[in-house]
Amino acid sequence: MPRALEALAAFILIVITLPLTLVTIFISSVFIGFPPVYMSKRIGRYGVEYTHPKIRSMKGGRETGRVFFEVHRINCCGRVLRRLHLDELPELFLILIGRMSFVGPRPLPASLLKGLDTSLRERVRPGWTGPAQLLLLRKGRLDKRLQIRLDSHYVRQRSPCYDLRIMIATLSGVCRFSGVNLDPGGSADRISFGADLDRD
């Protein structure tokens, strides 16, 4: 999608969703914690670190960077916000200013990218959705190495038509998504990550 068209679409969506965003921020501040907007550091285009805002969906506690090891911090309100992806509404502002795109590799903390070849995915802006997110919507689980491979595949194949197909598939997937698998022992990747946490 051309950058100017993407910025215009982001601005329109910000205006349309502003009441919903404000309600979500209020719900988060009352039922989850303060401040209601959570800032984290993510890796963007060219490997540049930037501040990434999301509406808080988890109570305070130890942060691991992998939600399946922090499930005890998510209450019923947080589950609803995450299920409906309302916590991601502030990312529209990142699309507006050019830090993100509607479609691309999902931005990740630097700690989750150690030891992985991310050179290809860092050629493009991180995205609100992408092939890896589609797999997560379908399966409820996503290995980080598989995510890197899917992100790299997207960079090689990306085109306006491909982006449009991904966005349509994402909307469809959100409507029928049953939830993320939060079992910390559900894959070799998670077991290995948990062992690293225990050694810290």
Describe the overall structure.
The protein starts with a helix and ends with a helix. Helix 1 packs antiparallel against helix 3 and helix 4 runs parallel beside helix 6. The model has no long low-confidence stretch (mean pLDDT 84). The strands form 2 sheets. Strands 1-2 form a two-stranded antiparallel sheet. It has a two-stranded parallel sheet with strand order 3-4. It has one domain. It has 200 residues and is mostly helical. The relative contact order is 0.13.
Describe, in short, the structure shown.
With 200 residues, this protein is mainly α. The chain has 7 helices and 4 strands.
Secondary-structure topology with pairs:
Elements: H1 3-31, E1 37-43, E2 49-55, H2 76-83, H3 91-97, E3 101-103, E4 127-129, H4 131-139, H5 144-157, H6 160-176, H7 188-199
Parallel strand pairs: 3-4
Antiparallel strand pairs: 1-2
Helix pairs in contact: 1-3, 4-6
Kindly list the characteristics that best describe this protein.
7 helices, 48% helix, two-stranded parallel ribbon, mainly alpha, 200 residues, globular, 4 strands
